[in-house]
Design goal:
The chain is α+β, with helices and mostly antiparallel strands and 581 residues long. Helix content is 25%, strand content 40%. The strands form eight sheets. Strands 21, 23, 24, 25, 26, 28 and 29 form a seven-stranded mixed beta sheet that branches. Strands 11, 12, 14, 15 and 16 form a five-stranded antiparallel beta sheet that branches.
């Protein structure tokens, strides 16, 4: 009898424990799906909880949810509870994706689901339900990328235009970008649409309406076959079904779809080597060239400006102007570069100029020889060279140029440069005193007494220095910032190495001064922290502009003058921020 009672108690407590156990699980509708299919994931729990936190769904787009459902049942005297959070996901790409852990707090304890791996394959054929608005929307909405030229030359402008075609029976209620093209191998400039205008057109021979979403001007920076990455959109539509109302009108239903423009490729041709002039510095387009001097008559030690200007249409921001060859007796300063460029669908238009400040040191006439400027014209597929006129600089007043003449040599007086050394030592013998009780004796005796406290103090300071993790990290960052600034100076002329070193310098400088990590270095956060610590708005803007120059240099070539200017700007801005902070 006692054995039966014990057995019943064990069964009862085991059943109660199983009933009271908390379950929190993630369930997916399928573990393998096509990139054009959707996935449902349910987070189910058998007890109510608080502070539900879903995973980030990295690699997916949430197209629906969270939808919440609660179920309570009482069957044969037993109560059951179920609560579910549901999401509908659209994969962004093929491959192995993972749905991370969700969290919920139940009765003071945090429970987590087990991550689930999803295998996303290529697009699959879907069963088409004529009454499904999703199917109708997919067939009636198309995103197209139109390229103006499929075989441009290196640094020749062309455009890519993204158009959204919608059938006349479908209405679009809005969209948002899922993935925007990066244009990594191009210099790019987006031409903003001030307002969206609807045009009438055709798609696959059928009448459609379309809107231009984006126009982008591109200058290829590499030769060969280059890929223009696709644009992907999430679109909310009202799509027609095969059902009709009592008046015979087709019933429309809301749907959310994902459309992607097809990937486009262009074959970029290299510039011909035959006939390439020595004065060619990378200009591609159609240009005029002019060289002017602010004055041609002046006195010695007065300054004049020599300005070289290239005007026209082409890659104005992507080439350097030729350097003038001037007489050595003219003191020439580094040029100031100025670009007045307008960007449109036809490319860059405007001017690129370099202004040299020249200071003659002596009286005389100084000819500035003609300066040649060469460019490649894609329309004629030929190089063209423009030349300026010779300019004579007349220096009227100043010291004469001294001609070298052997008869007019000035005698130099010989001077004995070793007169300060005495030839007689005048050595005097010293008396040898007893070492005991001498100054040396007492000094050696007192040395350990003085050095031991100093060693203890030094050891304490050294341990405190080593244990100061934060301070050591900041000091190391400051040291690295100065090191990389020196590396940038040594790399002037090598664009990749220079801007990589300069970017590392700026990042380590921020780590040392603002105590932030690289992952936290957004422009808004940097601006906010610098101004909170006392930096002026102008200095902050100059610092952010340097960071933009480092980013911009990854995609476009930069001249040695621009690198020199950025280095000097970085030295000045870092010094200013040090003073202001």
């Amino acid at each position: 009898m006692k054995m039966k009672l014990k057995f019943l108690l064990i069964v009862f407590f085991a059943g109660f424990s199983a009933y009271s156990q908390v379950a929190f699980d993630a369930v997916v509708s399928k573990e393998t799906l096509g990139v054009n299919e959707r996935l449902r994931v349910d987070f189910e729990m058998n007890k109510d909880g608080d502070n539900f936190r879903p995973p980030s769904f990295q690699g997916f787009t949430v197209v629906g949810g969270p939808n919440q459902s609660i179920s309570k049942q009482w069957i044969n005297g037993k109560a059951s509870f179920s609560k579910t959070f549901s999401y509908f996901l659209q994969p962004k790409a093929t491959g192995k994706l993972k749905i991370g852990q969700a969290e919920i707090e139940i009765e003071g304890t945090v429970y987590k689901t087990i991550p689930i791996e999803i295998n996303v394959t290529g697009a699959v054929d879907l069963q088409k339900d004529p009454n499904d608005p999703q199917v109708a929307a997919t067939e009636n909405v198309h995103l197209v990328a139109e390229v103006s030229k499929s075989d441009p030359y290196l640094n020749e402008a062309f455009t890519v235009v993204y158009k959204l075609y919608v059938s006349r029976e479908t209405a679009v209620n809005g969209w948002n970008e899922l993935d925007a093209p990066k244009f990594a191998d191009f210099w790019s400039q987006s031409i903003d649409e001030k307002q969206f205008k609807v045009y009438d057109g055709s798609f696959n021979g059928k009448p459609y309406r379309y809107v231009i979403l984006r126009r982008t001007l591109l200058y290829p920076q590499k030769t060969g076959e280059l890929t223009i990455e696709p644009l992907a959109l999430n679109i909310n539509v009202e799509a027609p079904t095969n059902r009709r109302d009592i008046f015979g009108m087709r019933i429309t239903r809301p749907a959310k779809i994902t459309v992607t423009a097809p990937t486009r490729k262009v074959n970029v041709k290299s510039l011909p080597e035959d006939g390439k002039p020595e004065s060619f510095t990378g200009a591609v387009g159609s240009f005029d060239f002019d060289v002017t001097a602010s004055k041609t008559k002046l006195d010695a030690q007065e300054a004049l400006d020599l300005t070289l200007t290239a005007k026209g249409n082409g890659n104005l921001k992507l080439f350097t102007l030729p350097k003038p060859k001037l007489p050595s007796s003219l003191e020439v300063y580094e040029p100031e570069n100025d670009q007045d460029v307008r960007v449109s669908l036809n490319g860059m238009a405007g001017s690129n100029s370099a202004r040299y400040t020249i200071v003659p040191q002596q009286k005389g006439n100084y000819p500035i020889p003609p300066i040649r400027f060469s460019y490649f014209d894609p329309s004629t597929e030929q190089y063209k060279t423009l030349s300026s006129d010779e300019i004579i600089i007349d220096v009227e007043n100043g010291p004469e140029v001294l001609a070298s003449n052997d008869d007019n040599k000035v005698p130099v007086k010989a001077v004995n440069q070793f007169n300060y050394i005495k030839s007689d030592a005048n050595l005097v013998a010293q008396n040898k005193d007893s070492f005991f009780a001498s100054t040396t004796f007492w000094g050696m005796l007192a040395t350990p007494v003085i050095l031991i406290p100093l060693a203890i103090l030094f050891g304490t300071k050294r341990r405190a220095y080593q244990n100061d993790v934060k301070g050591n990290r900041l000091r190391k960052a400051d040291k690295l910032a100065r090191k990389y600034l020196g590396d940038a100076k040594k790399s002037l002329g090598d664009q990749t190495a220079f801007y990589l070193a300069l970017e590392k310098c700026l990042h380590n400088f921020l780590k040392a001064r603002l105590n932030i990590q690289t992952s936290d270095m957004s422009k808004e956060r940097i601006s906010k922290l610098l101004q909170e610590r006392g930096a002026t708005v102008e200095t902050t803007a100059d610092f952010l502009k340097l960071l933009e120059s480092c980013e911009f240099a990854r995609y476009t070539p930069s001249s040695s003058d621009a690198m020199q200017h950025d280095y000097e700007q970085a030295s000045r801005v870092i010094s200013e921020i040090d003073k202001q902070l």
